[in-house]
Amino acid sequence: MIQRFIELGEGYGDIYELRELITSNQQRFMHGFVFVSTNPQGQDVLSIAAAFKPASEGNFMPIYLCREGIPVDSKRLAVFEQAVSSLGHTPIKMEVKHSSVYADKKFYHNHLISVLRLNHYIPPMQ
Predict the structure, then answer these.
(1) Of 15, 43, 54, 119, which one has the greatest count of Cβ atoms within 10 A?
(2) Per-residue pLDDT reduced to its tens digit, 45-82
(3) Phi and psi (nearest 5°) for 27?
(4) Going by DSSP bridges, is the β-strand pair 44-52/29-38 parallel, antiparallel, or unpaired?
(5) CATH of residue 104
(6) What is the pTM (predicted TM-score) of this model?
């Protein structure tokens, strides 16, 4: 199974697209994630993500991500949390390193996928 992050943006208007993906794909929704990190300026910022089961055909598991553009006390976080809770789930909060620590975004994404697999939030590599 291929698991990949699909970045929607930094969560300004993209949060509403992510909410729409969650509500229109309710049967495929698995987990909602809130990743907390500290940017190089010392501010805590949030990334939000939603993992979906693979489509009926294919072996691709998407994890949609709004990366590091959401302040901790933002109304946008409430929009995401409400979308996830409307499906009977609770967003999973995790502290992670900021993406600026990594030389490339793909290393950051691979690190997050490893953390999610280790915690059994997404299936292991097959």
Answers:
(1) 15
(2) 999 999 999 988 888 999 999 999 899 988 999 999 99
(3) -70, -20
(4) antiparallel
(5) 3.40.1530
(6) 0.94
